[in-house]
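pasting for the record
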Amino acid sequence: MLVTNRRIVFALGLLAVTALAGCGGGEKAFVEFSYVVEPTRGLPPGMKTIIIQPASLGPNTDPKWSDLVAEVMQTLVNEARINYGAEVMVSDRRDTQISFDEADLAAAGMSTGQAGSGGVLDAAQGAILSNINVKVEKHVGKQRTISGLSGSAYGGRHWGGGGGSVRTQEVETVTRNMTVQASFKLLDAGNNRVWEHYTPKTFQGTDKTEASPFFGSSQTEAELTPQDKIIGTLVEKAARQFISRLVPCTIIAEAEVVSSGHEASVNGVKMLRAEMYAEALGNFKMALAENPDDHCSSFGAGVASEATGQYGNALKYYKRACAGAAEPKYVVARDRVKDYGTRVRK
């Protein structure tokens, strides 16, 4: 009977520890902001018009990603021209068959157009070529969860009084790992030389069904974020990273910040939700003053710093968060500021 009581006490104690440890403060904020970065090298002199070819694909990669990466790059180049003064335009060759068909109809006297009056395409001085390779791996595992406590553990004047036992069960978990490998190059059509060749780091996305360690039931795979949405986001990030090397480009930062159990950390996340970034940073600093190892507050301080243009401080806090916990979102944020922090348009 003493053994079973100890099991219950241990289970309840573990529940309390789990709630207090790590980012378990219960407050969450989804933060999004953006800034414009300057290109690293820019375009060759005289390159005013470019074409963007659909991407070549790796084995088993869905053809839709070929069109998506081309569309994203075209949108970003046009945005740079319209909003940021880039002197370049995209000649879209994908729909040229319409012009050719109209010219043929006019030549055959089957339309009111004049023969030989088909659309004239702008000469392109450069071409962007790319390759996309998408991989998806699924792993099925098991997680043990407490399914119930029995006996009189909740009665009496002291914890552990009476008999009782702990019941557990295994639930299935599903982990999906998605990776996007990409390479890009800008070809100078005048001399057939590669002006810029860039292969970014592999972009990764992971999604996993979760069950609470206590009285938990497993999520189903259908409850996870749609696979195409995750892959599409990764493909878009790869394209944006390359285009930002050629023309001014908007960088969109997104982060989910979770508080630790410290009251100041909780308040900091609340301030982030209200877009009160300076106040949020002050609260995270208070939490870190009492617990320098609070990686949740380090990450929150990094987000608040980045959102207010303090990129050096943001990198410092993101590195501190990475040292405290192996969280993929910490690494993403650190690498983003390393890549773009010194290039932000003033």
